[in-house]
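User: Please write out a complete single-protein record containing the residue sequence and its fold in token form, without commentary.

AI:
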Amino acid sequence: MSRAERQQLLVRGETYAALDESGDMGGGHGGPPEGLFVRDARHLSRWQLTLDGAVPEVLSPLDGERPARCVLVPRGGRQEPPAHTLFREQALVEGGFTEILRLVSNRPVPQRLRLELTADADFSDQFELRADLRTYAKPGAVRSREARPDGVRFDYRRGDWESATEVSATPAPDAVIHTGTGARRLVWSLALEPHAECELRLRVTALPHGGERAPGSGTAEEPVRATAAAGAGVEEAVRRTARVEVEFDGSVRQPVTAEAGVDGPARQTATAGTEFDGPARQTATAEVEFDGPVRQADRPNVERQTAEDQPASVQAEFASAAHHAASAQAEFTDSDGQTDTTEAEFAAGLPLPDWPELAAACTRGLADLASLQVPAEGPDGEALRVPAAGVPWFLALLGRDALLTSLFALPYRPGLAAATLPALAAVQATADRGGAVAQPGKIVHEVRHGELAHFGQVPYGRYYGSVDATPLFLVLLGAYTEQTGDLALARRLEPHARAALTWMLDHGGLTSRGYLVYRADEGGLANQNWKDSPGAICSAEGERPSGPVTAAAAQGYAYDALRRTARLARSVWADEPYAAQLTRAAADLRDRFQRDFWMERSGFPALALDGEGRQYDALASDAGHLLWSGLLDKEYGETVGRRLLAEDFFSGWGVRTLAAGQRAYHPLSRHRGSVWPHDNALIALGLARYGLHDEARTVATALVEAAATDGFRLPAVLAGYPRGSHPAPVPCPHACLRESRSAAAPLALLTAIGGA
């Protein structure tokens, strides 16, 4: 079983946790990484539990429920059953993670055991963790750790960027130990009475950049001040050394000095003279001497003592912290129960088909959609929740993904469209910005909140490298108005819709070139249609176009956008001349497309045209999108629809992105032979539009049977291997494990077979 298959994902809003089968997080790079992630940053990179110094054995692996549960026991032989059992329960809150550990004695005699939990936060950006071998310099970055009465705090600072992670526990650990690696180990010495049990509760709170920060910034001096203050009132002071670890990342060769002020007999200074050069991480350990109390001198690596070892005033602070942690846990329990109810309500009332497997896939998809929603704002600053693209890589607003998800769900959950449209209108481009590929009226491709986007090291903070999000915005606005009869949103967003159309006609290229076109963005996306990987747009031999690219699917979206917006102009905005202009533009585009794209020899449309108008002749699934948008006339549409179900296209699990047998085909490529459920959902809708209902049901059946192999959840993408060669769908590497378009795809299948 692969690491991805063993991994469990917990998702809630902008927060997700990826854990192994025992409930641990081991960090790592590549895909998919473990940890706790909030707003594109990893706020926990290690979370590893041991009992009496050993990793426990998994008796029952972590399930995917809410909360997630597993059962662990100490390792031992067959002769003696486990002395105790650990029941582990984990769940998410918005911006955090909670855990309940319940230890149950299995013996009739008292026991003592040592439970340790090692925690660390590396604050890696999502883009650092991808398996693309890229590295990013972080000049001036500083990490620090601070022991707290009830746990530990990790801080990260780089220029004006600050983030932190707080770990608190009830009861408080007996010690917080320096591991020598930057991680901290929380330690409890526990007494278990015969057949009794005890319980520990932990809470991890992420404080991402821009969020509300707890008092104290966690700078290098704070651990020293906290320890010195803790000694107030103790009769005998002992000189000792505290180890404060501060990590620096940088690209300037210079000595680094950190000064730690101590309120006490003297001011101490910690100087790290380590020189560094380049992006590699350097660690400077400062030895800080000060006068202060030590009650457990035989434990030099212990950064704090138990509450019982402290003066009465400090014990009161410990009690207050414990009460706060318990209150927070109770608050989480209530809010998590509410989230479960929300998921159930989100899936309730769906008109399910008389097809149990499709009904199960729809229900599973709606539950996933309920968790894959992230906060956004509308044009007037109103709070919204919109579909995120997917986890682990894209828990963020991506224009194309949110629009297609909302379109699939529209007949059943129109609220998704009602949130997505104003959220995208709020971040619609209003000016030219070359680095972000922004032009007035263009709809955003991607919105990120991470450190690398903040410092401009990746362009995706607010990135507009999509040729098709803008027409899809208009398609959804028109479809939403027709589906719901809600004219108010169409009136409110009229200026945004007109700006989007102006972009299509001017910057997009419809007027000057006759089509929507894009150019490769150096530093961003080479391809800016839905097949956005390098090499996805190609000839049958694999040759890539140069210069301006005219992708076929985007022209279908443009045609649909022109027609739907013409109807809005006529029926809602009362602008007949504008409606007539758009109607003519749509008809001209249809005629032009069938003339320029149709390949007589293949009986199929080209995948794209290059800057010289040459056809790129790969046989690709994008032709199915043309059916969905209605761009092809009836004869061509029926020919294309039947061709997509031929053996070289149809794997048995769905239609491949590129037909097998071409030189460019690769079954594990993202866009040159794999099978995407959302792509197939669009194809099924298109087949039904052209009256090919048997073919639409064939596609739907394949996807539903693929979903049935994994708890009725459709993955983001499958390998293109034929069904006869392997009894189950083969996953594609580096794909999202949950994706909003795939979650909504069963709803589109329900529509395609006559559900709406």
The CA atoms of residues 141 and 158 lie 4 Å apart.
